[in-house]
Amino acid sequence: MKIKKIKDTNDNLNSPLEVGGESVLYHIPALLNETIDGLNIKPEGVYVDVTFGGGGHSMEILSRLGKTGKLIAFDQDEDAVKNIINDPRFIFVKSNFRYLKNFLHYHNIEKVDGILGDLGVSSHHFDEAERGFSFRFDGDLDMRMNTRSDFTAAVLLNTYSEEKLADVFYLYGELYNSRKIARTIVNARSKTPFDKIFPFIEVLKPYFGREKEKKDMARVFQALRIEVNKEMEVLKSLLDSSIEVLNPEGRLVILTYHSLEDRLVKNFFRSGNFEGKLEKDFFGNIISPLKAINNKVIIADEAEIKRNPRARSAKLRIAELKM
Fold it and tell me: Rounded to whole angstroms, how far apart are CA atoms 153 and 196?
């Protein structure tokens, strides 16, 4: 199997992956070099890519590993299986990364030197109408990362109580009219259950002015996607597990794409807890298992945003496990 590496340069940022002889543009990783540099890769080290997707990050990690280095990649999405890399140093785990510790143990790996998580939804998912991640297409209200799960956006919309729906839209979409939106959904579904995207959008349109319609609809879809895939719970599991499986001075590199995730990662890197509550020792030093490598969040420059508009919302944070 031939694989062409994606590089973050003007010349080949948009180069496709070549998998099984076929060229496929699955996803352009944001801040690729900054992310991989942040891992501070040791050629003979062991690394984990918990969001394999199209394999862009994994291929760059492998390019920097020596013969005895190892990379374990996680992805629960069936589509990602098509991008598996044929390399003896590579192990693919078809599962959610919340089970990181379990699968490392299964593969007789106790500690790793770096963990990378790109928490964004891939371009592939947004561009596949049948996956239901985008309001640009009329497809099923799906939004599952794991297509083996029975819990879809349609199930959520048709079964959650009004109060629970309001909480989802407020907490994960930061929509301040969440209660009105939830009430409208409950009233509408009593007549016709939701199953398709466009009819759902039509029900909500009265709550969004034309100038903010796309932005607010994006918040609705973000909230549904987060709840369907339990993304915040999974992220917390990853952060907690990372402390247990990283070697001293091992790196944790996380790319986020919305403020909820970024706030959680920022708090955890700084304080070791999700609330950001600081505890200090006798000398006034902050007690935390991690040391932030970049105190200021890393974002894409204008040149990268021009080449890859989806990089605009990417925020990169890097931390190291203390000795």
Answer: 10
Domain assignment present for residue 188? The answer is yes
Radius of gyration of the chain (CA): 20
pTM to 2 decimal places = 0.87
**How far apart are the C-alpha atoms of 285 and 40, rounded to whole Å?**
26
Mean pLDDT per 10-residue segment, the chain (323 residues): 36 34 58 97 98 94 98 93 96 96 97 95 57 70 92 97 98 95 98 96 88 86 95 96 98 96 96 92 89 94 93 96 94
Looking at residue 285, what is its pLDDT? 84
Answer yes or no: is 132 within a domain: no
d(CA 174, CA 168): 9
Q: Quick one: CA dihedral 50, 267, 133, 152, positive or negative?
A: positive
Domain that holds residue 306: 17-124+248-321
Does residue 291 lie within any of the structural domains? yes
Say if CB 8 and CB 36 are below 8 A apart: no
Cα torsion at 145, 25, 126, 258 (round to 10°)? 80
Domain total of the chain: 2
Q: For residues 183-194, b (16+ Cβ closer than 10 Å) or e, as one string? A: ebbbebbeeeeb
Domain shared by 155 and 207, yes or no: yes
- Residues 216, 173, single domain; the answer is yes
Query: Is there a single domain that holds both residue 214 and residue 259?
Result: no
